[in-house]
Design a protein that fits this description.
Chains A, B: Catalyzes the formation of isopentenyl diphosphate (IPP), the building block of all isoprenoids. Chains A, B: Keywords: ATP-binding, Isoprene biosynthesis, Kinase, Nucleotide-binding, Transferase. Chains A, B: It catalyses: isopentenyl phosphate + ATP = isopentenyl diphosphate + ADP. Chains A, B: InterPro entries: AceGlu_kinase-like_sf, Asp/Glu/Uridylate_kinase, Fosfomycin_R_FomA-type, Glu/AcGlu_kinase. Two copies of one chain form a homodimer. The first copy, chain A, has 270 residues and is α/β, with parallel strands linked by helices. The first copy, chain A, has one domain: Carbamate kinase (3-Layer(aba) Sandwich). Helices cover 37% and strands 20% of the residues of chain A. Chain A is built from eight helices and twelve strands. An eight-stranded mixed sheet of chain A has the order 3-6-2-1-9-11-12-10, sandwiched between helices. Chain A has a four-stranded mixed sheet with strand order 5-4-7-8. In chain A, β4 and β5 form a beta hairpin. Chain A starts with a strand and ends with a strand. The interface between A and B is large, with 36 and 36 residues.
């Protein structure tokens, strides 16, 4: 089984103030998934997508996951929760519809219907149903979603697609995790500042990302730090992942068909 | 806590070939719920709605819940499952949006994300999350949805709003169940054939529905038979329900505010 992450920055116009799809990317990626599944040796796939401009503007506006000083702020956040849930659900419909257009039996699985977090980490999520969908050849499609949080000071949280991947990865042990991002992989230096920078081939520990020049605290670009920490935890239990550029045609397809090393592999070094 | 059912025949144009909302009813009912919740003594509400023209045409076309003779038919039904799921999700979005328009913190809870049936009856559905939404003052909105079924001969089933009500009713013990239908209540005689027929005031057993003239097997109109059997089971554990006409203005509001006996009460006789 493969888990494929589609970053919100790939399938939506992330900098848009209002929810906006990147139709071109979404259509191309759905086509690639369909083409790969005709040829691939595996039969099972879970798709997890981010929220992009469908979620972040609302989550930020209503500060979902922030502390709740009084009843009025609680009510404001609760309203924001409902609005955010609706918006990301619409994105999920767009993704599922596009996948179905290419014959993929995409079934929506709504995290806010079965996941509970505590201090923003999943503490309750029964994956039985997802396994059953896989067993019947469906492609479950999950996504970043607001969820209830058991920490009384915040009561709600935004569950990211990355955390979903980490949780499913640990529990269902996929053969591979493929993360379709808007960058070519993991860099030691910011590729926007250093145009010649190339992505690291393999990350086996956080030390691999320390600068060759010996500088400390090298920024891992694009909020990759937390993501890599989670992926290294997966690597430790034997689940290998790869971060690649889903904005570049055919990379998702090639990776789904078994090719490795297109972007940055996260796996323990032998 | 109150469970309010909105029949698919009330909020959609049930006889439409394509999914079609009954915007007028939906808007009016959302307004009534909002007005009632400002005055009501209770603070907790679950809304469950049917699928109407958003679900039945697809469920029928693909015969979801029917037996599966071969792989081809399985694939056809699986496709139908995905299409039906998407359509009823769209109806649910319309319902939630309308409720939110009137300030109700409506949160969507997707049955196909947490319910499994066996031979078309729920055998697995964790209601913890629904209780938590209630505790935080959300209004969970569930709906008729296709779900996976553990019976290998059918593999999928259509979970009706009525079965959801029955299951939640038994497990969360609401103070009341209100069923907004397109008829005034339960009749002994078909009111379309007998224009002077009046709905029964109270049903305490199936015997109450036998004709006063002593005829056997009187048809209980509108597919009410199965519904009443389920509601009588609720009555036996002390959960009273009422079937009323949600197409008539103000009845939902009056019932939510505590009035009883507007339509037909289903409760054990003393």
């Amino acid at each position: 089984m493969i888990i494929l992450k589609l970053g919100g920055s790939v399938i939506t116009r992330k900098d848009s103030i209002d929810p906006a799809l990147d139709n071109e990317n979404l259509n191309r990626i759905a086509k690639e998934i369909s083409e790969a599944s005709k040829n691939a040796r595996y039969g099972e796939l879970i798709v997890v997508h981010g929220a992009g401009s469908f979620g972040h503007p609302y989550a930020k506006k209503y500060d979902i996951g922030g502390s709740i000083p009084d009843k009025k702020e609680f009510q404001r956040k609760r309203k924001g929760f409902c609005i955010t849930q609706e918006a990301v659900k619409n994105l999920n419909s767009a993704v599922c519809n596009e996948l179905r257009k290419y014959g993929i039996p995409a079934v929506s699985v709504q995290p806010s219907s079965f996941v509970i977090t505590k201090n923003k980490r999943i503490i309750r999520a029964d994956l039985t149903l997802i396994q059953k969908y896989l067993d019947s050849g469906f492609v479950p499609v999950l996504y970043g979603d607001p969820v209830l949080d058991e920490d009384e000071t915040i009561k709600m949280a935004i569950l990211s697609g990355d955390q979903i991947i980490s949780y499913i990865g640990k529990n269902l042990k996929p053969d591979r995790v493929i993360l379709g991002s808007d960058v070519n992989g993991v860099y030691k230096k910011d590729p926007k500042k250093y145009p010649n920078a190339k992505p690291v081939k393999v990350v086996g520990s956080m030390e691999d990302l320390e600068s060759a020049e010996g500088t400390q605290n090298v920024d891992v670009t694009g909020g990759m730090g937390g993501k890599i920490t989670e992926l290294l935890e997966l690597a430790e239990i034997g689940v290998e992942s790869e971060i690649l550029n889903a904005g570049t045609p055919d990379l998702i397809k090639r990776a789904l068909m078994g090719e490795k090393g297109i972007g940055t592999l996260i796996k323990l070094q032998n």
